[in-house]
Amino acid sequence: RWMVVVSALSWLIINDQPITTGAFVTSDRRYEFKGVIKSVNKLEKTAVIRHEKVGDYMEPMTMPFWIRDEKVLAQLEPRDQIVATFVVTKKDGEWLEDIVVVAKGR
User: Rounded distance, CA 67 to CA 37, Å?
Assistant: First the structure.
C-alpha cells in the first residue's frame, strides 16, 4: 500500500501536477467557495460552514474554516450565505478570504 502512495506522488511530481489533497499540497491554490454559516467562534477565528464542492480539492461537507479577517468574522451570523476565496498553502495552511455575505440568515 505504501508503495502505491509513493508511486502516485512520484508520478504527480515528475509530471509537474499540483498535489491538492490533505497534507500533500505542493503549491499555493485558490478556489471559489460557496457555503452557509452554521456557527461562528470569534475566539478561535473560525466559522463552521456547510459548503459546496471546492474545485478538485474537497467534496461538499460541513466543517470549521479559519477566517483571518476579524472585521469580517465579527459580521458573520448563522444561516448567512457566503461566497469567498478558499486559500490552500503548504506553509500557512487553509483559510477563507474575500468573504461576501450574499444573503443574510433569517
Answer: 12
